[in-house]
Input
Amino acid sequence: PVQLVESGGGSVQAGGSLRLSCAVSGYTASRNCMAWFRQAPGKEREAVAVDDHGGASLTYADSVKGRFSISQDHAKNTLYLDMNSLVSEDSAMYYCAAGKSWHCSMSERDYGYWGQGTQVTVSS
Output
């Protein structure tokens, strides 16, 4: 079975940094669509960053461009999200997602596998 296990969340002050990790098993991350989504209380889940087939193309939400970076360690089959210059609006549960087809987009409809999430809290 496909398993995605996130780690690295926590509490940080505004302006700080965090690195989220997503350990992938039963699925080759570098050959598929991988993404990070987030969901804040009372809000819909939104895509933060998409890695199209092992870095062929990277897409970011406007709200995180220039601050967040998505990457993979192919040998470890692990997806990362480096988050810098964090602001309180970045506080949310962050989810790792793996695609269910060749089409990589910012829509959660294109992702069939999800991790359990890791909480990020940014205090101002």
